[in-house]
Amino acid sequence: MDEFALIRMLTTGRRADPRVVVDIGDDAAVTMVAPGRQLVLTCDAMVEGIHFRRDTLAPEDVGFKSLAVNVSDVAAMGGEPRYALVTLAPDRAWTPDELRRLYDGLYEGAAMWGVTLVGGDTVRSTGGLWLSVTVVGEVTAGRALTRGAARPGDVVFVSGPLGLSAAGLDLLLHRPDWADRYPRLVAAHRRPRPRLDVGRLCATQGVRCALNDVSDGLVSEAWEIAEASGATVRLYADRLPVHPELAAYCREVGASPRDWMFFGGEDYELVGAVSAGAWPELVRAAQAEGVALIAVGEVVAGAPGVLLVEDGRERPLPKGGYNHFADEGIERAR
Questions:
Q1: I need a surface site. Which of 21, 190, 236, 301 has the fewest CB within 10 A?
Q2: pLDDT tens for each residue of 234-255
Q3: Distances in Å between the alpha carbon of 266 and those of 39, 137, 149, 191?
Q4: Residue 22: helix, strand or coil by DSSP?
Q5: Cross-strand pairs, 121
Q6: pTM exceeding 0.85
Q7: Alpha-carbon distance 67 to 115, whole Å?
Q8: Class assignment of domain 3-140?
Q9: Using CA atoms, how far apart are residues 225 and 214, in angstroms rounded to an integer?
């Protein structure tokens, strides 16, 4: 049973709550909170040995990243993060000073994104550190962006280059002495920057827009949009942005940039779909904010799935990406 089948099994048959606007199955939940405003709720965990290793992330990086991944989910809903709850479970190998440094990273991210840490829980782990962060945000009523809003004819876009985090992890694991040569790759893995600017822009434009954050790889996230929207996502190989550092690193180690772009994950850029008619104005609004959105494909009618067009030929792409419960899943930290 994979991760998503497990979630379906655990949540099927629940009693519906009329206050819940967007329920389990998207980047975050959305609930009614006050006239004109809705809550955005999300929760993510980081587990030592699964999501990170002590030789690739400093304690400050663990704290910063644990908040960033949650803020990214709020960004994907077009929301604004407000508060965070933190559950911390270290084992005895983590010293008080290291835990303080971890919280320094949390507070650094909180100051950057306007989040207030308002509580949580602290318990002891019997092996490794377990850190769970819950972020509460808000969005204008009726403006939450979901994965299921894509329609045939839409332009598929991304908010920036992909694959950098996965390449950065590969570098830190196998060539740590190269870190100074590829600072962008290392920073992408250790200190991801959630795209609140893009989520905010898409929400305030008032147009129909599907949005998803790239946490498990572009293809996995495109599949989620396709399945939620009941359509096919078509990606064009020659439109995908390849960052110069990623290209240079891949040439040096004999790797494929596309593998990390498609299946690496942890980029925390956004992938979205918007009508072709609204696309030019969205691009202009983004440029006015200093943001470059990149068209990489389109949505077409058909069974849910993702297709790649390359050299005039079209082929289906498997879901791929990271999945905790897949039999052949690759743990990120290893």
A1: 301
A2: 999 999 999 999 999 999 999 9
A3: 25, 21, 23, 10
A4: strand
A5: 87
A6: yes
A7: 9
A8: alpha beta
A9: 11
Counting every residue written for the chain, the total comes to 334
Residue 106's contacts (CB-CB under 8 Å, 6 or more residues apart) are: 63, 64, 66, 67, 84, 86, 117, 133
Q: Which token pair is 99?
A: 């835990």
- Enter the tokens of residue 52: 């990170």
The first and second tokens of residue 108, run together, are: 């650094």
Query: Do 300 and 20 contact (CB within 8 A), yes or no?
Result: no
SS3 content of the chain, % helix, strand, coil (to 5): 35, 25, 35
The closest alpha carbon to 274, from 223, 198, 214, 215, belongs to: 198
pLDDT at 299: 98
pLDDT tops 70 at residue 332: no
Residue 208 contacts residue 83 (beta carbons within 8 Å)? no
Pairing relationship of beta strands 232-236 and 80-89 according to DSSP bridges: unpaired
Quote the CA–CA distance of 49 and 56 in Å, as a whole number: 11
DSSP SS3 for 231: coil
Give the HSE-up count for residue 50: Cα atoms under 13 Å, Cβ half-sphere. Answer: 13
Whether 223 and 232 have beta carbons less than 8 Å apart is answered as: no
Gap between the Cα atoms of 280 and 275, Å rounded = 10
9-23, 104-118, 309-323, range with greatest mean pLDDT: 104-118
Dist. CA 288–CA 314, nearest whole Å: 35
pLDDT at 330 over 70: no
Domain ranges of the chain: 3-140, 147-316
Residue by residue, DSSP assigns 164-222 as HHHHHHHHHHH-GGGGGG-HHHHHHHHS----HHHHHHHHHTTS-EEEEE-SS-HHHHH
Please check the confidence at residue 47 and state whether its pLDDT lies above 90.
Answer: yes
Mean pLDDT of the chain: 91
- Given pLDDT bands bounded at 50, 70 and 90, which one contains residue 331? very low
